[in-house]
Specification:
It is built from 4 helices and no strands. It is mainly alpha-helical. The chain has one domain. The chain is globular, with a radius of gyration of 14 Å.
Length: 90
């Protein structure tokens, strides 16, 4: 989304008015809730705890997941990209 002002980058998928960035897609955008639930379930099956209260920020949470479950995170990101492409270009 280069060339756009921050205010012009609202999420075209959920249309909730939030700025579309990586953290919105990974943690907040309602359009990805179903995919997110599958991802969290996969993490739980691998023994990853979802209590991130001791993690200072969402960025740090992503770092922890990258270190402990990189394949699951990569799959989640790919599913999000596919969902976004379907929503925007179908």
């Amino acid at each position: 989304m280069s060339g756009l002002n921050l205010q012009e980058r609202s999420c075209p998928i959920c249309k909730d008015g939030f700025i579309e960035d990586e953290l919105l897609v990974l943690f907040r955008c309602n359009a990805y809730n179903e995919v997110r639930q599958v991802f969290v379930r996969a993490l739980l099956e691998r023994g990853f705890h979802t209590d991130t209260s001791n993690v200072p920020s969402q960025i740090d949470t992503v770092k922890v997941v990258c270190e402990s479950a990189p394949k699951q995170l990569a799959k989640y990101v790919m599913y999000c990209i596919e969902k976004r492409m379907d929503a925007l270009y179908k």
